[in-house]
Amino acid sequence: MAMHIQKFKVILFISLFVCVNSWKSCHETFCDRIRARPQGGSRNVKLDFSNSVLKLNNESVQTNLNVEGTSQNLKFKLEVVGDSSFHILIDESTPRYRANKALNEVLPPLKIDPKKNNNNTLVTVTHGNNKALIYSSPFKVEFYNNNTLISIANWNNSLIFKTDTNQREIALDILFPNVQRAYGIPEHADRLTLQNTVSNQPYRLFNVDYGNYRVDSTEALYGSIPVLYAHGIEQSSGIFWLNPSQTWIDVTTSPDDVDAYFMSEDGPLDMYFLMGPTLQQAVMQYTKLTGTAPLPQYFTLGYHQSRYSYMSQDEVTSIVSSFDEYNLPVDVLWLDIDYTDEKKYFTWDPKRFKEPEKLLNDLKKTNRKLVAIIDPHIKNDENYDIHTTSKREGYYVKNPDNTVYSDKCWPGISSWLDFLNPRALDYYANLYARRGFNHSNIHIWNDMNEPAVFNDHEPSFEKTMPLNLIHHENRKHREVHNIYGFYQTVGTQTGLLKNNPNLRPFILTRSHFAGIQRYAAIWTGDNYANWAHLRISLPMCLTEALAGVSFCGADVGGFGGIPDDELYQRWYQAGAWLPFYRGHSAIDVPRREPYLYAEGIQARVRTALHQRYAHLPLWYTLFREHELTGEPVIRPITYHYPKEVDALSIDNQILAGPNVLVAPILEPSISSKKVYLPGGKSQIWYNIDDNNKAFEGSGYHTINVNLNSTPVFYRAGSIIPRKDILRPTSTGTYKDPFSLYICLNSTGEANGTLYVDDYESFQYRKNQFLYITLIFSENTLSSQLKDGATYSPSAKIEQLIILNPPKDIVEVKYTADKESATATSLQYNSEKNLLSITGIAIDLQKKFQIEFSKKNNATIVKLSSWMLVIIITNLMFL
Ligand SMILES: *[C@@H]1O[C@H](CO)[C@@H](O)[C@H](O)[C@H]1NC(C)=O
Ligand SMILES: *[C@@H]1O[C@H](CO)[C@@H](O)[C@H](O)[C@H]1NC(C)=O
Ligand SMILES: *[C@@H]1O[C@H](CO)[C@@H](O)[C@H](O)[C@H]1NC(C)=O
Ligand SMILES: *[C@@H]1O[C@H](CO)[C@@H](O)[C@H](O)[C@H]1NC(C)=O
Ligand SMILES: *[C@@H]1O[C@H](CO)[C@@H](O)[C@H](O)[C@H]1NC(C)=O
Ligand SMILES: *[C@@H]1O[C@H](CO)[C@@H](O)[C@H](O)[C@H]1NC(C)=O
Ligand SMILES: *[C@@H]1O[C@H](CO)[C@@H](O)[C@H](O)[C@H]1NC(C)=O
Ligand SMILES: *[C@@H]1O[C@H](CO)[C@@H](O)[C@H](O)[C@H]1NC(C)=O
């Protein structure tokens, strides 16, 4: 118990600490020296375009850059990579640390044809519709798409590149003309639209352990993704500032442009200009550089139950039994630090978790999975082999005097694995071969990896490592701080894949950097049980999604504090629509598994969970599409409707894919909610929370709500795949039938997609899957299959629900290959504005056609008395 008291004290301490606002401001860091930019025109920042130095070829432009106040000539390089992104690298002749691990792969230069003008002032580089004009003096680069100016690098000539031993900061400003908003640069507890920071602190990217964080804030949090989008009615683009050292960003927004001034503590100027010209394209250009998330297992999209901490293996199995008893689905149980033997990771408490394999097998019997925590700090205990080995082999992060760094964390005095050292990383990955961790039913949570250090004795305590520590190849911690935790997840993924090469691993991480989506999901850390934290969870995850990380969620109920009943229910309802859905709570708050609540509350939580599970086929399809295209799984409204001025800042609503709009209730005691529906008058949205009532996409609508409500709208023109039977787990639904919700638009048309595979393995990468395009047009539903892929799913489509259905349908004719069958059970429901067809069994593997026929003259006579309810039974499909 001593340890828990210790964590509790630390939580309290941190909360106090936050209240007195001790996180560093710009003027307490290097930022102070450069925030007031060097002023403009008279500065000498010059590219050397003389023939003896300038190198132009079909892959790059290279030359020297002279910067006033910098003691040496810098190397300048421009190339085009990825999806037409301009890459500029400015570095010393001895290269600084480059965070190329954030990139998906080595990016080959694309073909360019650079041209210099006669008087050596300008080099023009064209690539497709894009163009960069590189000016020699003062140095600046203008980027154009189709001859429209998109952005200007070093617009104000404030470039900084310090080369003194102790002052190595760099800075540059980018102007984005003709835009109205800036988004991106997570992680901050802030709105989708970035604030103007002129009279505020700049946005800070510096991974820190900051619980119960302040909202609407530019303060640093657990993760750092230095991609910023400039977005407007007419054009959008972005900048990816690839730098893992502490970074501050001043954002200046005016009605018609955005200026972003990036300041980093170290590293080269390593920048990728995303050319848009839409936000959607800019996001895909970013994921072209940093990759997409590999398709997760199906279960990961179900509900996760966690707590700091479940204290014994019996407790874990009894929680599962209670979920079953109360008919509440749950897929995953989580173990926080107390499962270990005295916080020694890769061990199990010898009494309370004495049979980890049994626990894992027991969970497997009911289709449940286990996630266990592994932190990066290693207890300094001479009887702990991971410590003695790491010390002996030099796997730890070191002090400047080359001794092993140690300080306090959960286990007491600890040291930190240097995941940047390939040998240490390999050693760490192999630890997953240990007992329990080599089981196919375990998945991993990497926490405290900012890294968090309980070093309140340090003079400038920010609960993380001192910046002068030493990593592999003599890199200072300062150079790599924001990418340290990222490297832990790389090792975790390697370890899990070694154990089970054909099983998709699931990893959750708190610290993150650009590219993390290739390794792990994230959550928004130690939030708090209040409405402000529920509200901010949407923009936080929307921003992460635009920055490549779709697999994001917030602790349901709030980690710290005690949610009242209303907040608790609302959080389950809203959380069901973020990609990662986990209930979690702190050690010092009362238990709050949903079955502990009164039946009315429990029923609403059950409905929320059911809604989540019903839409798993949709979530899974969206994750697959993300993997292929880089499109985020959740999107702000403006992503699809950039022309709608009123939608530019909407971040209390979410689009799950293009077709489902969710407006969860995020405030207490309300009986109506204003919901923005985009697309104009001709775009209809069906409120599935209220009898599929149709609304025009003409802007704000007032929706009446009660405690049961979560306004969710399906877009007319779309087809949504679902599985509507409530089961204890997602795995239990594998064989359950699909229902297709066919949402007809004003021209009686709709389309959609459905992806299925074995939900667990990598066989889908060997074409073992089905990707089905569904099209409804002229009263006929037809399917198209992705060529070359085959899979034989056990589930069929057994229900079609047509919203806003054509009238007088009496007969349904199914054709696939040479088979055909007629009719089945049809039921109109006028109150719900739908036609339901059941008693069918459509094989997904075959291209099919289903024709819906209106009554002919004969059937009018025969069926006129049926009015709206017409049932034709007993003609089952083959
Ligand atoms: C540039 O030219 C060289 C020599 O002709 C060729 O090998 C290389 O593939 C070209 N690079 C690109 C990106 O086209
Ligand atoms: C260089 O030539 C360009 C036209 O190509 C002209 O606009 C510019 O003024 C000239 N600059 C100098 C310094 O002569
Ligand atoms: C850019 O110009 C090309 C060629 O004129 C045209 O095909 C393309 O549609 C234009 N793109 C945009 C975004 O305007
Ligand atoms: C940038 O330069 C322009 C033109 O010199 C000036 O008007 C503007 O105030 C500068 N902006 C900043 C943020 O320094
Ligand atoms: C897991 O590791 C333990 C300890 O090395 C070993 O006894 C067990 O057989 C391993 N299990 C699997 C499934 O490899
Ligand atoms: C209806 O939906 C179809 C397919 O989704 C689309 O092609 C068509 O343009 C839509 N019609 C209207 C009026 O929105
Ligand atoms: C579905 O219709 C939309 C227009 O509503 C269109 O943009 C999209 O490409 C269509 N998708 C398929 C798979 O036909
Ligand atoms: C139904 O009857 C109308 C007029 O009585 C006729 O014009 C039409 O062709 C008939 N339709 C069918 C399908 O027999």
Automatic annotation (TrEMBL):
Residues 1-22 form the signal peptide. Residues 76-250 form the Glycoside hydrolase family 31 N-terminal domain. The keyword Aminoacyl-tRNA synthetase does not apply. It comes from the Eukaryota. GO terms for biological process: carbohydrate metabolic process; N-glycan processing. One of its GO terms (cellular component) is endoplasmic reticulum. It is found in: Endoplasmic reticulum. This is Glucosidase II subunit alpha. It comes from Ignelater luminosus.
